[in-house]
């Protein structure tokens, strides 16, 4: 975020620009009574409000079972500014930079924001920022920016596969990939396959329309590779907006706006108030995966992914779609739900898809059935006609007698 600033309004929070696939939004006008401050490079600011997403995901309830302790989350991104006060000593590993310089520096700011969503430490009343998995350890893997300069897109493409492979070898339990492309690269596919086989949970952005060179809906990678959890972004009402790319790569959704998180070396800021970004949604799911990994240390990556998807909040328990996948991630439910064959949703690893029985088709006989009381009705009808005729005859006979008498 070099040379950029964004507005933070106390009470009504502004936004900041985010790198890789995070949207760059226009700051909102502040109300007259609000104190306006700016998240400016070199100036440390803190946001006292906690991240709204933590409540929406039930994170504090999940912390009663897990805080991500002992779990290593690789952030393959622009580096992580380890000097931020939310990252005390030991919370961010040295990592590796594929573009020169240290992985614990961040010229862009995107990687630091992602790391804060996942594992920022609570620093008390002056700041509301805390990560979804506040005891997890961040492993920064820097694939863009740094000392080498050059085109960022080319850097990401060239460095992504070796970065994933290196993160697996360095002991990552979860790999966060807040990036997406339409390019299906064999080297990245192979690196992802190796990570999943090694038991690493790989989480990737399903794509943002505003940043995409091709804004059409469709599969995005690495989210589209087998074993990867693809994530789209929701607004405050848990609705996936038009800014998220639709496609078969969408497995889960998570909050993607009003993201209160770490701002490089300078405290806090609020990202994506005007738009929803799958970058940040991806980080929330990675944090949830870290909680689950501590809770189930020996489970496979496929089992953890299935738990996150099967327990997600959605309208129909049996159906996924290309907009919101299996629904909004729910960390506590993922750790506590007993999953068996009676639970509707995605097929469990090694399971068989439930057959959908064909609708039963039966011929309907529309031939009118005989009325068993028809003879009775006929007799009554003739009786009524007879009585009527007799009454009529009596009436006419009386009239004739009266005429003769007159």
Automatic annotation (TrEMBL):
Q: What InterPro entries would the database entry show? A: Peptidase_S8/S53_dom, Peptidase_S8/S53_dom_sf, Peptidase_S8_Asp-AS, Peptidase_S8_His-AS, Peptidase_S8_subtilisin-like, Peptidase_S8_subtilisin-rel
Q: Which residues cross the membrane?
A: 379-400
Q: What domain of life?
A: Bacteria
| One GO molecular-function entry | serine-type endopeptidase activity
* Assigned protein family: Belongs to the peptidase S8 family.
What's one Pfam family here? Peptidase_S8
SUPFAM superfamilies referenced in this protein's UniProt entry, alphabetically: Subtilisin-like
The yes or no answer to whether the keyword Chloroplast is present is: no
Q: Which source organism?
A: Knoellia flava
Please state every residue range assigned to the domain named Peptidase S8/S53.
68-327
Q: Which residues form the active site?
A: 77, 110, 279
* The entry's keywords: Hydrolase, Membrane, Protease, Serine protease, Transmembrane, Transmembrane helix
Q: What is this protein called?
A: Peptidase S8/S53 domain-containing protein
Question: What's a single GO BP term from this record?
Answer: proteolysis
Q: Which residues form the signal peptide?
A: none
């Amino acid at each position: 975020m070099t040379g950029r600033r964004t507005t933070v309004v106390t009470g009504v929070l502004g936004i900041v620009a985010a790198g890789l696939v995070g949207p760059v939004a226009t700051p909102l006008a502040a109300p007259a009574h609000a104190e306006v401050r700016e998240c400016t490079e070199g100036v440390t600011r803190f946001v006292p409000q906690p991240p709204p997403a933590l409540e929406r995901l039930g994170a504090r309830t999940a912390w009663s079972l897990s805080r991500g302790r002992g779990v290593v989350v690789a952030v393959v991104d622009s580096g992580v500014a380890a000097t931020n006060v939310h990252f005390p000593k030991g919370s961010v590993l040295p990592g590796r930079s594929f573009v020169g310089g240290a992985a614990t520096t961040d010229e862009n700011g995107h990687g630091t924001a992602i790391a804060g969503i996942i594992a920022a430490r609570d620093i008390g009343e002056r700041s509301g920022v805390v990560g979804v998995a506040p005891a997890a350890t961040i492993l920064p893997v820097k694939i863009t920016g740094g000392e080498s300069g050059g085109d960022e897109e080319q850097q990401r493409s060239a460095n992504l596969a070796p970065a994933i492979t290196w993160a697996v070898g360095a002991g990552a339990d979860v790999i966060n990939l807040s990036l997406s492309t339409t390019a299906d690269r064999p080297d990245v596919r192979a690196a992802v396959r190796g990570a999943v086989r090694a038991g690493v949970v790989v989480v990737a952005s399903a794509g943002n329309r505003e940043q995409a060179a091709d804004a059409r809906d469709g599969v995005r990678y690495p989210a589209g590779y087998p074993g990867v959890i693809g994530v789209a972004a929701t607004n405050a009402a848990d609705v996936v907006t038009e800014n998220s790319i639709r496609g078969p790569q969408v497995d889960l959704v998570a909050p993607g706006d009003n993201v209160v998180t770490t701002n490089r070396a300078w405290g806090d800021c609020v990202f994506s108030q005007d738009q929803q970004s799958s970058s940040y949604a991806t980080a929330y799911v990675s944090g949830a995966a870290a909680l689950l990994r501590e809770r189930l240390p020996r489970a496979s990556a496929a089992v953890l992914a299935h738990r996150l998807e099967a327990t997600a909040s959605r309208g129909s328990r049996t159906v996924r779609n290309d907009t919101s996948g299996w629904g909004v991630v729910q960390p506590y439910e993922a750790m506590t739900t007993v999953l068996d064959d009676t639970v509707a949703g995605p097929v469990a690893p090694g399971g068989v898809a439930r057959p959908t029985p064909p609708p039963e088709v039966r011929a309907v006989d529309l031939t009118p059935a005989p009325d068993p009381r028809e003879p009775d009705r006929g007799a009554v009808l003739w009786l009524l006609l007879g009585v009527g005729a007799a009454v009529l005859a009596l009436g006419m006979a009386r009239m004739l007698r009266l005429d003769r008498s007159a």
